[in-house]
């Protein structure tokens, strides 16, 4: 039903940004101003840099995305700097396509990539008041690892972590596009 593939140079960052705006609109309506609510295309480009950005397509329509990174040594979040784990960000599904398993497909693909890179853990952050998201991630095996307060956000966040099963042929971590 959906085709998942990495972002290519010919993909439109503006189209990806518009998808993120649609995907995060419900959170904005809850008063949660995630960066993806209204970020510019330049911010989208910066947030996917050096990561693996996966796109989900339904025919010719971009309907979902997720980006997974190696640890982020410059992050103000100490957990994202840990060398044992990959970091998920900018996960979104077009509201029209929610409930079709696309979010699970995207998460599976990102977790598989982290496993193949040899990471033992994968981390993400979400707003603490977004209880539905915290619960959804918990159902996937994530647990709250630490509280987090981003300096530019009025709400509290949490860092969630999932222990990854070893890949059958675990390798030393490599650059994002190398696998």
Give the structure's gist in a few sentences.
The protein has 179 residues and is an alpha+beta fold.
Strand content: 25-35%
Strand order of the largest sheet: 1-2-3-4-5-7-6
Number of helices: 4
The CATH fourth-level homologous superfamily: Gcn5-related N-acetyltransferase (GNAT)
Compute the CA-based radius of gyration.
15 Å
CATH topology: Aminopeptidase
The CATH architecture can be given as 3-Layer(aba) Sandwich
How many domains comprise the coordinates?
Answer: 1
By secondary-structure content and strand pairing, the structural class works out as alpha+beta
Mean pLDDT across all amino acids: 90
The H/E string reads: EHHEEEHEHEE
Topology:
Elements: E1 3-6, H1 13-29, H2 41-48, E2 51-58, E3 61-69, E4 85-93, H3 102-116, E5 121-127, H4 131-139, E6 143-148, E7 157-163
Parallel strand pairs: 4-5
Antiparallel strand pairs: 1-2, 2-3, 3-4, 5-7, 6-7
């Amino acid at each position: 039903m959906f085709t998942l593939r990495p972002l290519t140079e010919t993909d439109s960052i503006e189209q990806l940004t518009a998808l993120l705006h649609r995907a995060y609109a419900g959170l904005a309506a809850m008063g949660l101003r995630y960066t993806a609510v209204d970020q510019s295309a330049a911010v989208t480009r910066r947030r996917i840099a050096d990561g693996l950005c996966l796109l989900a397509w339904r025919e010719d329509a971009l309907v979902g995305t997720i980006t997974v990174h190696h640890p982020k040594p410059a992050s103000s979040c100490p957990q994202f700097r840990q060398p044992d784990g990959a970091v998920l960000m900018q996960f979104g599904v077009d509201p029209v396509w929610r409930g079709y398993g696309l979010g699970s497909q995207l998460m599976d693909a990102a977790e598989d990539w982290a496993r193949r890179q040899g990471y033992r853990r994968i981390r993400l952050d979400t707003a603490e008041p977004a209880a539905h998201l915290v619960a959804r991630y918990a159902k996937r095996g994530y647990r709250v690892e630490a509280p987090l307060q981003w300096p530019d956000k009025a709400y509290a966040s949490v860092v969630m972590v999932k222990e990854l099963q070893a890949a059958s042929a675990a390798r030393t971590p490599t650059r994002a596009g190398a696998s």
